[in-house]
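Thread: quick sanity check before group meeting

JM: Hey all, I'm pulling together slides for Thursday and realized we never actually wrote out the predicted structure for the chain we discussed last week. Dropping the sequence here so it's in one place. If anyone has concerns about the input, flag it before I start.
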Amino acid sequence: MQIKSLETTVTFATEKDLPFVKALADAHRHEIGFVNTATLAEAIAHKEILCTSHGFLHFHHRRDRISTLYHLCVSPSHRRQGVGLKLIRAWEEYSGKSGIKTLRLKCPLDLEANGFYCRIGFSRVNLEAGVKRSLVVWHKKLVSATPLSSQFVASFSAGGSELQRLFELWKLGGDLERNPFAYVIYSPIACPPSTTKFLQQEKGLENIKSVWLDCGAYQVQQGKRTYDELLTFLDKFYRENQWADGYVLPDIVPLTTDSNETVEYKVRETLYHCEAFYGKMSNYVQERAIAPVHGRNVNQINRCIEIYAKIGITRIGFGSWGTSGPNGSVNMLSQSSLALFDTVINIAKEYGMSVHCFGIGGPNSFNRLRQNNLVPHTLDSTTWWKAGGFGSIFFPNTSQIQITQRRGIETTKEGFEKLKKDTQHSCYFCQNIEHLRTSRNHRIMHNLTAWLDTLERAQCQN
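JM (edit): ok, ran it. Output follows.
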C-alpha cells in the first residue's frame, strides 16, 4: 500500500526502517512508555507499522475486526504539518480494505493528542485507570462502502521463467504508470517451485503489492488430486510460507451437473474442512484467510457467511457460478448465480466483510456484474492468459476474437484498426496485428491491458 501527498509518503515499514522507528519511539518514552526492539521488529515483519520519513504508526488487527493503535510518533520538528493525520488516514484505509469494523486506541489523559483524535472523527467511549495515569479510550467505526470498481487480481499457472518474460515484456511496452501484476493469485499445488521463488523475489523488490495463495481445489475438481492430498499439501505449504497476503481456504467446488443433495454435501464438507483447517493455522495465516462461499440457495450462502464471521474471517470469495465444459472447467454467469452473488454481497455488508469474485471470465463478465449492480472488492480471472494461449484476444466490452486466423472483417488489418478505434483501445501489444497472430505473449499481455482498461473505465463512469 502506498499513499502519496505533496509532503510525505506512507508505506509499510521494512527492516531497514527499524533503527529510525526505535529511535523515534525512545524519544517519546514520556508519551508511549518503553518499547523494546524485538516488539518493533516483529510488528514490521507482520506489516503492522506504517512509516514516513518523519513518523510512524504501530497497530494490530484483531480477529474480532477491531484494529488497535499501539503507538503514533511524529518527530518534533515536523509536528502540526499533517504527518500524524496522514498516518491515521493510511491506517484507516488499510483497515477498511482488511475488513476491520472499528479502530481503537488509548491516550493518556494529560496529552494534547486527545484533542487531535476528537477533531479527526474518533469518539471518546471510556476513561480507564492506567499504571501511572488515566487513559482515554477512543473508538472510530469504519463503514464498509460498496466499491466503485474492483481490484483486478491476475491469476495464472506458470513457472518463474515464463512470468519473468511477461514482466519484462510489460516494461518493454512502456506503460509504467500501471502494473497489471500488482495483485496476483496462484495455486502452489499446480505451479512449479520456481513460481513461488519468483513471486517472493518480486514482492521483496516491491514490484508486486499483494500475493494470494489459491487452495488449488480445481486440481481435485479435475481429478488430478484427491481432497486429502490437497489438505496435506496446503497444511504444509501454508505453514512454511507465511509471507503472502491472502490464503484461500480449501473447498469442494459444486458443479452445475451436481444434484441438490451433492451440492448440500459439498457445502457441508467445505464448511467443516475450512473451519478445521483455519483452526490449525497460525495467527498470520488466519488474519489473511479468504474463505470460499458456495451454495445453490440462500440458506447455504447464509450458512457459509455466518460460520466464517463467527470464527473471525473478514474476507470471503464467491465462485459458485454456473459451469460447463469438461469437469465443469468453464465458469458461466447464469442468472441464478448472479442472484446468489447479490445475496453474498448484501450479507457480507452486514458483517463488514470484503468480497472477492473467483474466476469470472473476461471483461464482458465484469460488465455484466456491473449491469446488475454487483461490484466485488476484488476479482480474479485467467481468461487473459487462457484466451491468449488459444489464439484469442478481446477488447474492453467485446467478446473474444480468434486472431490467429482470418475469419472475418475484425481479423483483417483494416477491420482490426476499426475495432481499436471503436473500443478506444490501443496498447503496445496490439500495434501490429501480425505480432498478435504469431506471438502468444503479445496476445496475453494485450488481453491483460484490456482488463485494466475495462476496470478503469468502470471507475470513471461511477
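AS: nice. Residues 1-7, 323-331 have pLDDT under 50 and may be disordered. Residues 440-461 form the longest helix (22 residues).
JM: adding both to the slides.
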